[in-house]
Amino acid sequence: MYKKILVPTDGSEFAQKAEKHALFLAKTTGADIYALSVTENNFVNGLPLDDEVYQLNQLLRQRSEDNIKEFEEMDETSGVTFHGIIKEGSPAKTILEVAKEEDIDLIVIGSSGKSGFDRFIMGSVAEKVVNAAKCAVLVIH
After folding, report:
1. How many other C-beta atoms are found inside a 10 Å radius of the C-beta of residue 48?
2. Residue 40 and residue 91: Cα distance in Å, rounded?
3. By the 8 A CB rule, do 48 and 22 touch?
4. In 1-141, where does DSSP find H-type helix?
5. What is the CA radius of gyration of the chain?
6. Which of 79, 95, 78 lies closest to 87, judged by CA?
7. Per the confidence metrics, is the pTM higher than 0.90?
8. What is the pLDDT along the chain (141 residues), one digit of tens a residue?
């Protein structure tokens, strides 16, 4: 049923729950896992490109690499084919772009855990993905 499963990961508790569900589905269906970590660094736009900004970008990239590696190591013996992807940009937009580029069948995403005013002000990446995705989306809470 599924051949390619996209799993956005940021290392959070909700992302880790989504990762476990995605691994189960991949083992069951024989699908490949596409793990995506999006580095959102738009807050540095307009700052002078000095050593501190460079170091911050390197730190964010390393964190993304660590998130992908932790996910991949979660179940190394399953035989699931794993593809790690690191991108910079807006999380929801980048998730949707990668889903289209990779011809993804299913996106498994963790909910943010936000509710009420925080969700209203900041929005929900999962909600944006659900509303705009062209493929099936499974939200794990």
Report:
1. 7
2. 7
3. no
4. 13-29, 51-73, 91-101, 116-122, 125-132
5. 15
6. 95
7. no
8. 899 999 999 988 899 999 999 999 999 999 999 999 998 766 555 666 677 777 888 888 899 999 999 998 887 777 899 999 999 988 999 999 999 999 999 999 998 755 555 555 446 899 999 999 999 999 998
Distances (CA, A) of 41 to 14, 89, 126, 135, 139: 21, 7, 19, 27, 25
The letter for the amino acid at 77 is T
The candidate with the shortest Cα–Cα distance to 34, out of 46, 47, 18, is 18
Query: What pairs with residue 35 in β-bridges?
Result: 7, 84
Amino acid identity for residue 133 in this structure: A
